[in-house]
Amino acid sequence: MMGGYGDVQLLRDDGLRLDGRKIxxxxxxxxxxxxxxxxxxxxxxxxxxxxxxxxxxxxxxxxPRKIQRQDRAVIDVRYxxxxxxxSDRIRPGYNRRSREISKxxxxxxxxxxxxxxxxxxxxxxxxxxLAAEAxxxxxxxxxxxxxxxxxxxxxxxxxxxxxxxxxxxxxVLDLDKAEDNYGQADLPVGILxxxxxxxxxxxxxxxxxxEYNLAMEYNFKAAAEIHEVMVDALxxxxxxxxx
Amino acid sequence: xxxxxxxxxxEEMSQGRSDAELRLVTPGMAIGPCAGKRIGSGxxxxxxxxxxxxxxxxxxxxxxxxxxxxxxxxIPRSGDLIVATVAEVRNNLWFMNINGSFQGLLPMSLxxxxxxxxxxxxxxxxxxxxxxxxxxxxECHNVVLTMKGIGLRRLNQGALLTVPVNHIxxxxxxxxxxxxxxxSASDCRIIIGQNGKVWVDGDAQGIAWSRAAIEIAQRSGHxxxxxxxxxxxxxxxPIRGEQ
Lengths: 243, 243
Fold this sequence. Notes:
The structure holds two protein chains of two kinds. Chain A is α+β, with helices and mostly antiparallel strands. Chain A has helices spanning 96-110, 136-150, 177-182, 209-237; strands at 29-33, 41-47, 50-61, 74-81, 121-131, 160-167, 170-173, 185-191, 198-201, 204-205. Chain A has a single domain (29-237), classed as GHMP Kinase, N-terminal domain (Ribosomal Protein S5, domain 2, 2-Layer Sandwich). In chain A, helix 2 (136-150) runs parallel beside helix 4. Chain A is globular, with a radius of gyration of 18 Å. Chain A starts with 28 loop residues before the first strand and ends in a 6-residue tail after the last helix. Chain B folds into three domains: 10-69, CATH 2.40.50.100; 81-155, CATH 2.40.50.140; 159-242, Ribosomal Protein S8, Chain: A, domain 1. Chain B has seven helices and 16 strands. The termini of chain B are far apart. The A-B interface holds A 40-41, 58-61, 70, 112, 114, 118-121, 149-158, 192-195, 230-231, 234-235, 238, 240-243 and B 1-3, 7-9, 13, 24, 26-30, 42, 44, 46, 51, 53-57, 68-73, 101-103, 139-141, 166, 170, 222-226.
């Protein structure tokens, strides 16, 4: 069980959540592509109070040479939370959590990027969390996905990061900070919106099979909504385009 | 699935051919069924459907479906005329920055001078710019350059600018018509390398005007307003101003 504070009330008497959302309602999402002129591709995702910026550089020659793969590119992801992203200052630099998220993000992105097109290369993805309110890895993956498309990196699909969880024995979509801290389970997934495949899945806490199925149903519904916002962001960036 | 809307200049781009179709697609978006179609660049076949792998304009021409990317990195091809910068010098070769994923290699045997072993940096040092041609590219992205050929030389003066690789055709125009306009308006020598590097040489006023023209291409090269913006900029051209 997450948190361990079982006496914290996370659902109101009228069935809504503390921030007034329904149990299957997502926080508002907005995306802007191409915000960093120095990067080959970039995007900023605002998901509730989360703000994630992703920048993509490359493909470039992989250095040091020992990381090169003769048959494909490697994706080098660096996920970092800014010291000012939470109410308590975060010590700058890599830590266990950022290493883990960087690794799972890289593995998720490798499943959609056509890495075999760029042998011996490296694609560098920098994810910076400017403001955090639960679900930063999902916002980071979504931002990285849009930034990769903006950089012209070939991919077979986008990845949308979404999460569901359980609070007070109720499955809810898109946990906020209180629900993430004091809830019973968290299920972040990376979904390929066009094919419906799952690129990564993590689970913290316990869910019954029925609860898991309901959480995944919520996640797929949210992924479709976020995918529309992603496509719209890229269309807006190149509106009036004629090639 | 996804977006499909009418495109400015579609008739012009399709050159009046009725079988040409163009629409903006994002990675993972289904372009159409595979049956009877050949798959060109920027697309893959998946479950009997053609799927876009890049953000760009999908088009069908002579039974081949492809995607013209809005943003892409330079992929060197044998025979490309490029403007390269010296990145490293060894006793018998130069490593050149070709604005691509990998550096190009210029051996002294393919330089236009008689070079003694160990005297390579007497002819070109780090930061020097040269007009070269891509001699060979292998499957591991090893790029060999040559400076043996008519007009290939070290570029001793002038300014080096950068344009997006996918806007080069737009800047050159049909039969180099736009490039000739830029040259005559600025009274500068301009060479557009296929790697997105542009060399401009002339008086300071002409170079400044050319730099502004290239900035228009960077900003609006993919938009239908490019031609109008360039025409407006031509009214401020140094040559026109003197007349």
